[in-house]
Structures are given as structure tokens and as C-alpha cells.
Amino acid sequence: MCPLRQVFPDPSDKSVKASDFKVELVERTSESPLPPLLAKTPSTNFARSIIAVHGLNPRSKNEADHAWDTWRTPSGSEGHLWLREDLPAIVPGARIFLYQYDATAAYGTDKGNFHDKASSLLEAIHIKRNGAEQRPILWFGHSMGGILIKQALINAHVNPVYSSIKDATSGLAFFATPQSGGDQTLVNLGRIAVAIANTVGFSNKSDVLSTLKKGSVFSDIMAEQWRHQLESYDIVSFWGDHDTAVPRESARLGLAGNREHIVKLNADHGGVCRFSDSIEDQDNLELVLPNIQKLYEKAMAKCESVNTQEHAATEQDAADIEFRARLAALKTPN
Questions:
Q1: What's the total number of domains in the chain?
Q2: Whole domain around residue 286: which residue ranges?
Q3: Which of 55, 160, 187, 264 could be cross-linked to 145 through a Cys-Cys bond (beta carbons 3.0 to 4.6 Å apart)?
Q4: CATH code at 51?
Q5: Cis peptide leading into 9, omega within 30 of 0?
Q6: Where are the alpha helices (DSSP H) in the chain?
Q7: Where in the cell is it found (predicted)?
Q8: Is 196:108 a contact under the CB 8 Å cutoff?
Q9: What are phi and psi for residue 49, nearest 5 degrees?
């Protein structure tokens, strides 16, 4: 059974037209780790996908609640979910998903399990994208969720089954994701990850902290190969000036300015990606949305460029076939 389901709109419902711009939120926490948050048109008309991935769960919150509450405030179904309420206006025609997974299991065991969790994310997307492999993808990662995204893209790079996901990825938006900045060492990344785990309530004696401290689960994303792969993406890194776990230097990848844009928000570690109606949060949202819009526009421009090239190649192939047919006709005796 596919873990990624489209719960709205129903593709078989003929009453839903492409001109309908309905927004529907359906929380599916047990059946699918990637429940769609937003659907504006029937599934056949969706042209691009946005996937939001959360980080470590607070010890006091289960993974289902955390998957949603990462992006909404206050917590609970009545909270303001900007992925549903604010984002759609700047990403017309996009399907927006969040991914639910056991973050403690992903980061708290060993490198092999971390790889498997990243591949599970790819598989959920792969199944849902069957027949629409060219649809552009934007990724949103909060905290350690950004690390899982990076590992997933590395896995996609080496596994032909998922290579279309890597190729379709255009933009990455990281919210307080530990990147190591200029100190590209496993020890430093492990230290930042431990600080995040402490922030969400893990004790110093927990297995999660022991694993994170070693940093070995992150060895792939520290490799030079991943640094080269990053050059294929447009990236914006958001950091909070009240974030004690991932300060500015740790939240940046250290890429050239034309590849990575760094944006400061007036927020703590959790507040960088959820926005209430307070003045501070609305000011933050006004910084986030235009930067997401730029990523989206770049993704669409790349898609249009590829489509134009493919169309030109198809026309050229047709012209070549017609030319060869006419040439053959001239050579054929009457």
C-alpha cells in the first residue's frame, strides 16, 4: 500500500474542476507519512510538489503531532498552519506535503538505519510521483529534517530508482538546519546535533545523544561529493537570532552567494518555521514567503527551459524524419 496518498481532491470526483481553488486540510497520521496539506486543482493538473520534513520530536510529543506542529502555532488542529494558509498564494498549482516519521529512530541508532530512513522518504515520494517524474520538487527542512533531506538526495544520486527525484529537485529551504558552516567536521556537526537534542528534551545519557555526538551518521553529507551535488540546487537558509542550538554560523552551508541565500529571522529554534498572528511572526513570514517564491519561480523557469528544449528536439526529430522520407521518395524509381 502506497504510504503517500492524495486525500483531497478525489481524482475520481468529476465535480472538482481545474478552476476550483479549494483548500482542504485532512490530518492522516496513521495511514500515510506524507498527507497532502493543500490541493487546489485535480491531481492531473498539479505541476510541482513541495515536501516539508520535520526534525527531532520533543520528548513530550509523539511523531504524528510533531509532524504537524513543527509548521503550525499554537499546537493542535486549530493552530495556524502557514503551509496551508499562507504558502498557496505564492506557489499556484503546487501540491504541499509534510512527512511524518520516527525521528528518534532515524537519528538515534546508526548510519545504516539513517540511510534506510532517508530511502523510506524517497520511496514514499517515488510511488506517488509515478508517471510524473519531471514534476519539480522543492524541499523544506526544519532542524534535523534538513539533514534527512540531504541524505535522501545523496541516496537518490547513487540509486537509479530514485534518480528522477534528485533530477527534479530544484530548491531547498532549510529552517535552522545544522550545516557546520565553515567548520566542515563530523565532530562539529555532531556537537550541534547534540545541542538540538538537548533543546527538545533528550538527556545526556540517552542513546540518541551518544549517537549524535559521534557524528558518524552524517559522514555522507560531509563528503566532497555532496558539496558538488549542492551546486545543482538553489538554497535559502533561515536562522533564528534567538536560536541557541543553531546560530548563524552553523546554519549556513558556506556556498557562494548566488547559490545560497542566508536570512535572519527573529525567532528561536522552533519558531523559525511556524508563524502566529503576532507582529514578530508576521514580520518573519514576510521574509520567508518572498524567498520561497523566488525558489519556486526558479524551479518553474528551469522546468520551462527543459520543456522548451525537449519540444525543440521533438520538432527537429520530426523534421529529420520528414526529410528522410522525402529523400527516399526521390530515390525511388517511378
A1: 1
A2: 36-331
A3: 55
A4: 3.40.50.1820
A5: yes
A6: 63-69, 82-85, 103-107, 111-128, 144-158, 163-168, 186-199, 207-214, 224-230, 248-251, 279-331
A7: Endoplasmic reticulum; Membrane; Mitochondrion
A8: no
A9: -130, 145
20 part of a folded domain? no
The C-alpha atoms of residue 282 and residue 87 are separated, in whole angstroms, by: 13
CA-to-CA separations, 119 to 38, 48, 94, 256, in angstroms, rounded: 24, 21, 23, 29
237 close to 283: Cβ distance less than 8 angstroms? no
C-alpha cell at 151: 541524505
Q: Please indicate, yes or no, whether the overall pTM of this predicted structure exceeds 0.85.
A: no
Closest listed residue to residue 99, CA positions, set 128, 60, 135: 128
Per DSSP, what are the bridge partners of residue 239? 264
Q: What is the pLDDT along the chain (334 residues), one digit of tens a residue?
A: 333 433 222 334 444 443 343 334 344 444 556 666 654 443 334 568 899 999 998 878 888 889 899 999 999 989 998 998 899 889 888 888 899 998 888 887 788 889 999 999 999 999 888 767 778 999 999 999 999 999 999 999 999 999 999 999 999 999 999 986 655 566 678 888 899 999 888 887 788 888 888 877 888 877 777 777 888 899 999 999 999 999 998 898 887 777 899 999 999 999 999 999 999 999 999 999 999 999 999 988 876 654 444 444 455 555 667 667 776 776 666 5
